[in-house]
From TrEMBL:
SUPFAM superfamilies named in the record: YjgF-like
Biological process (GO), any one: aromatic amino acid family biosynthetic process
Keywords carried by this UniProt record: Amino-acid biosynthesis, Aromatic amino acid biosynthesis, Isomerase
PROSITE patterns xref list: CHORISMATE_MUT_1 (PS51167)
Catalytic activity from the UniProt record: chorismate = prephenate
Entry superkingdom: Bacteria
Protein name: chorismate mutase
Amino acid sequence: MIRGIRGATTVSVDDCQEILTNTETLLRKIIEVNQLEADQVASIFISATNDMKTAFPAKALRQIEGFTFVPIMCMQELEIEGGLERCIRVMMHVNTSVPQQEVQHVYFEEAVKLRPDLVKE
């Protein structure tokens, strides 16, 4: 069965290294807490708000050993008045038998405001 795993983070400024570092940290944590292997991941969508122009956040996945062949797509998030700035969102599609309510979603930095009900301390 395919399940969606969500996550998000933010950066303090539009800086290539910070975007890649924060995205890699987020992806690694999603992989870790959900005990995922690359073969389980069907695809990953990553969106970024339009105030980030220095890096493709999806490039961060290539730093994670074993994930070279996982399809990944980067896109621009909708521009919404009052929306969270400098935000990177992840939707990971994984093959798993884990029940929906046991999937571990991950939110870091200012992105914890998006889903405080899902944030683990």
